[in-house]
Amino acid sequence: MAAIFNINAQDKSYLDKKKPIEERINILMKQMTLEEKVGQMNQYNGFWDVTGPAPTGGSAEEKYKNIKKGLVGSMLSVRGVKEVKAVQKIAVEETRLGIPLIIGFDVIHGYKTLSPIPLAESSSWDMKAIEKSAEVAASEAAASGINWTFGPMMDISRDARWGRVMEGAGEDPYLGAQVAVARVKGFQGDNTFRSPLRIAATAKHFAAYGFVDAGLEYSASEVNRNILYNQVLPPFKAAVDTGIRSIMTSFNTIDGIPATANQMLLRETLKNKWGFNGFVVSDWASVREMIYWGYSPDEKSAAKSAVEAGTDMDMEGGIFVPHLVSLVQNGQVKESLVDDAVRRILRVKFELGLFDDPYRFLDEKREKEVIGSKANRDAVLDMAKKSIVLLKNEKQLLPLKKEGQKILLLGDLAASKNSPLGSWRIASDNNTAVSVLEGMQKYKGNSLKYEKGIALTQEEPTFLTEVQYNTTNREGLEAAKQAAKDADVIVMVLGEHGFSSGEARSRTQIDLPGLQQEFLEEIYKINPNIVLVLNNGRPLAISWAAEHIPAIVEAWQLGTETGNAVAQVLFGDYNPSGKLTMSFPRNVGQIPIYYNHYSTGRFTNKDGNVFWSHYSDVDKTPLYPFGYGLSYSKFEYSAPKVNKKTFAKGEKVEVTVTVKNTGIYAGKEVVQLYVKDDFASVVRPVKELKGFEMVDLQPNESKTLTFSLGEKELGFYNQDGKFVVEPGTFKIMIGGNSADVQELTIELL
Ligand code: BGC
Hints:
Blueprint: H1 21-30, H2 34-40, E1 42-45, H3 60-68, E2 74-76, H4 81-94, E3 102-105, H5 118-122, H6 127-143, E4 148-149, H7 173-188, E5 202-206, H8 225-232, H9 234-241, E6 246-249, E7 253-254, E8 257-258, H10 263-273, E9 279-281, H11 289-292, H12 299-309, E10 314-315, H13 320-329, H14 335-351, H15 364-370, H16 374-387, E11 389-393, E12 407-410, H17 412-415, H18 436-444, E13 449-451, H19 477-485, E14 489-495, H20 516-526, E15 530-535, H21 543-548, E16 551-554, H22 562-570, E17 635-637, E18 641-642, E19 646-647, E20 653-661, E21 667-677, E22 688-697, E23 702-709, H23 711-714, E24 716-717, E25 723-724, E26 728-737, E27 740-748
Parallel strand pairs: 1-2, 1-10, 2-3, 3-4, 5-6, 6-9, 12-13, 12-14, 14-15, 15-16, 19-27
Antiparallel strand pairs: 7-8, 11-16, 17-20, 18-20, 20-23, 21-22, 21-26, 24-25, 26-27
Helix pairs in contact: 1-14, 2-13, 6-7, 6-15, 6-16, 7-9, 12-13, 16-22, 18-22, 19-20
């Protein structure tokens, strides 16, 4: 292999595969100049702007020059075998030590073949399918020359105004941790990277970005320790325990300190306490942005704070290279900190096999075979079906009949091949999703009537532009109304455009945007037999629809296979099994709304007067709670039982429940277990998810499930970040969603 490297090093034995990685790192680092070390900590964007102003700017030529000087450790957003090879070749063949670049990319919900948006995937509660979806994404990205993804995003969030809720797994840390683990496994496989189709993953954004004030993008997140330890950090800890190879800092502050300079988070918690041995990358220019936060007076000080806190790589900030060398030489930053950062980055490069074969991800034949393969499309279709949540089904409108029913399909989104691709789809081509129209035509052919009705947007938005909803043009309404008169059932696809959620897509109104509410009500007046299919990247406030429309299907943005998945659910070839992972509010004023809130001293209306915890204008409960989702079948739960009512520390309690399918369709149900610690040294939430299982039942079939509860499920992190289990009584609750449970009490002695 040494032949492809063109190395000028005295001791080339770091290329010796047989030596242990740590030894290879030592051999290499001994020969690196301080400039070369700092170069490893520098990441450049590719040759176009992605998610922000590009401070390093620079022409491709300039970037090539710096790679050649050994001043670049990584590139992001360079993709495709040919393009990646061009930069990798310079690093490997034209630098003194031939250190390969690690190539990063935002592989968030698929690469070219797109999966549902992550929030949708989490609604499947199906960890195998989620793992498979990440595996497909990894394989396509890897085949395109990428070896590191900036995902999974695991920010717990309770605020649907924030556009990035679409990237996460919702509001719950227990489910969030499981989803995080599934995704890490999907991306990284068994962590050996022997397969050239697995890539290093990134847990982001560390931490508490999901708690941005008022859902406003890039604002502060001042969570307290209790929330930090019990809500925000569990998915990250789970990802670290699964062997994730990198962590990305977040844009927000915590305790007034930007996450990128946060010693408590990065150095103390992540690296020291959790023993994380991968590397930390800043978010895009977040080292530089500490100046704009009013935290770092200048670039030098930003570099110093970031490195001291434990940020190992500067993404597109252009701060480390110009300043770190002199900071170390002047004794202002310890060289050992730079060494630690470089060691971590090199470790991951060695683990990825880049020193054994820097071109192992660069095979044009593989690129053609893997990307967009039939197997990948099948996997994302499977994921898409499982992500759909049935919110309402009255008058037995669903499933639709394959024969003999006059079906009218309405809505701009129904024919869209673009919006269903969602927000993070940089490597995919526009207009490549199967539309709902196309999916339903497979069942009904030309007998399916379609009318666009009122247009959704003024023009087709892009990744970089604001979505402009149509608020004036009612063209198309009359034709839709005429067609509605004659239909047995009307399927209306309404909601947000795929570019309405995602980064920098905060909204203060989360009802149906533009003229869609009016459109829905106008059609309802003519023919109320409506199945509303929602497309959205966040919970929407749809109180009017929930009250009036007989059937509602939450279909998110489901990626490349959207139309096929929606059609299979509508026509009953897949019985919906998804459950919401974020509470749907009745209106935006209820936000933040989440199931695992505290009790209050005035929870119920005991005295019949107004002095209790409530809103005077709307019920305080969510419209649809966390964990909620229907099926075409019905499931009946027995009263749960425990094998003992009292137990000692170290013992486990077994909880059993029998679930029966009493409907006429085979179906799947996600059985959920919640726990409440009745009294503790700090107030505990009214309930917290601590177990779930999916049962697959034929009509009339029943199954008994057993959940095992121990300290892990009953404890919590106290104010010092210590995991404790306190004696006393606990309520155990089991049901098909967080609001509909049966409970019993156990006691820890
Ligand atoms: C986002 C990250 C992303 C990065 C690179 C940032 O703006 O916050 O999640 O990985 O850009 O595209």
